[in-house]
Amino acid sequence: MKTAIFFGSTTGTTEMIAGKVGELLGAEVLPATEIDKVEDYDFAIFATSTWGMGDLQDDWYDALDKLKTKNLSGKKIALIGVGDQAGFGDTFVDAIGAIYEEIKDMGITLVGKTSTDGYSFSSSRAVVDDEFVGLVIDENNQSELTDERINAWVEMVK
């Protein structure tokens, strides 16, 4: 299965997470600015951090506009959100929730939902039916759990 991870990263953290996941999955790791290539893959993973009060990482604004013109029907899609639950507990990983809202009705098969157990936040657009819509990483407050969370998630989405 041809797999790609499209990431938006400002500080490098999301790019680092995407790289780790990409290595484990044998996936191409591409910046979100290359989202035009999404139709070339059977499985696409969208990775982003959340900025400000629940905003997308800058590269994802144009990428989402382009994504709306693509045929994702029948594609396997997963999401990775990077956030800070202590500093932004009321908008924790909202950006993957925003991406999910945009793509959920495009005929995709969403894979990789994860439990909210072990996180401490008050609100998140990324929670649907009591689960995160993807892998959630908090490098600021729980970096010691990052590799364990990535490894478990990769095994689940394989």
Number of helices: 5
CATH topology: Rossmann fold
Low-confidence stretches: none
Overall strand count: 10
What percent strand? 15-25%
Mean pLDDT reading: 97
The CATH superfamily is Flavodoxin domain
Cα radius of gyration in angstroms: 14 Å
Q: Which secondary-structure class do the elements indicate?
A: alpha/beta
Shape: globular
SSE series:
EHEEEHEHEEEEEHH
Largest sheet: 7 strands, mixed
Multimerization state:
single chain
CATH class: Alpha Beta
Pfam families: Flavodoxin_1 (PF00258)
Cofactor: FMN
GO molecular function: electron transfer activity; FMN binding
Family: Belongs to the flavodoxin family.
Q: What is the gist of this entry?
A:
The chain is of the alpha/beta class.
Write the layout of secondary structure elements.
Blueprint: E1 3-8, H1 13-25, E2 28-31, E3 43-51, E4 55-56, H2 59-67, E5 76-82, H3 94-103, E6 109-110, E7 114-115, E8 127-128, E9 131-132, E10 135-137, H4 139-142, H5 146-157
Helix pairs in contact: 1-5
Organism: Fusobacterium necrogenes
Cofactor: FMN
Protein name: Flavodoxin
Features:
FMN binding, Rossmann fold, flavoprotein, Flavodoxin, about 160 residues, single chain, three-stranded antiparallel beta sheet, alpha/beta, seven-stranded mixed beta sheet, about 25% strand, about 30% helix, globular
Please, could you describe this protein's structure?
The protein is an alpha/beta fold. It has one domain (3-141): Rossmann fold, CATH 3.40.50.360. Helix content is 30%, strand content 25%. Strands 1, 2, 3, 4, 5, 6 and 10 form a seven-stranded mixed beta sheet that branches. A three-stranded antiparallel beta sheet has the order 7-9-8, with no helix packed on it. Strand 5, helix 3 (94-103) and strand 6 (109-110) form a beta-alpha-beta unit. The radius of gyration is 14 Å and the shape is globular. The mean pLDDT is 97.
